[in-house]
């Protein structure tokens, strides 16, 4: 991996090396224009082409239906937490949320700041979010404006392998921030998908929004900010003002990379095979303890710990010295977290497992760490 470390960051995260190398060139001179990609006018012909290609490649990679729109919006997924109720909720309306982790809960809490009723269809907080609900556990609302769920819980290391069931006829919204384009998507089950870019798609500060036209038309944007309106974003080609042009460029390059890698089916197979040795080792270890139940484990984020916090800290310190970086778990659950999105190399998993074997051998049975 030359002079680069193995970056297990949950986001911003590892990007494909071919994409980074192409960006190096284009930052200086984009396609012979004499201008760097960050210097291009968002109304110029060069950016017109960047945007057109990004949308076309996004559609091709995801097999996005013709009646869906592709939008690039600023503010990441957290901005989408506010955009959803602002566009689709209101007085006399109810929205359903499935609380399966930190970000799912924050989305629900943001919706509570807006007019309308927010129904928590399920909360895993009492079990420290170590599993996902069965459809039979969901308390959904007839006639809800929408049901929202987070398909991959970055902190907890859980991932939905299905789309949860809403009440009949209720639109379903998927926050796919940390597993977007890690596997094929069945659009027939969904009405909207959004994802922050900084995990599987590009740099931070931007979100990809895929929205079905029939759902878009339900947006009531008369009294909300222009930058939060999905209808405005669709009408203005994601640029009612100066957009994050570099983020759109880089996301476009990532879409091209996914295509070159064989598409989403190939990416899914690679991701499943890549993380398997890590889970296999954890399952066979009496030292390392996984957070998520087996059937709900994520192929993007693996959260685990050692027998105590002192050993966790030692593990993170020694791993860092070996070029295994940003393995510290989120402060809400501690321990370690290995985020291994699409661009993360399989060799990094091998290096991590080898280190875990060594660390367990040297520290098994310890309850304290020598100074």
How is this structure best summarized?
It contains ten helices and 14 strands.
Helix content: 25-40%
CATH architecture of the largest domain: 3-Layer(aba) Sandwich
> Between the first and last Cα atoms, what is the distance in angstroms?
33 Å
How many individual helices? 10
Sketch the topology as an H/E string, one letter per element: EHHEHEHEEEEEEEHHHHEEHEEH
How would you characterize the overall build of this protein?
This protein has 371 residues and is an alpha/beta fold. It folds into 2 domains: 17-260, 3-Layer(aba) Sandwich (Aspartate Aminotransferase, domain 2); 262-363, Alpha-Beta Complex (Aspartate Aminotransferase, domain 1). The chain contains 10 helices and 14 strands. The strands form 4 sheets. Strands 2-10-9-8-5-3-4 form a 7-stranded mixed β-sheet, sandwiched between helices. Strand 3 (94-99), helix 4 (102-111) and strand 4 form a beta-alpha-beta unit. Helix 8 packs parallel to helix 10. The radius of gyration is 21 Å and the shape is globular. The protein starts with 5 loop residues before the first strand and ends in an 8-residue tail after the last helix. The mean pLDDT is 96.
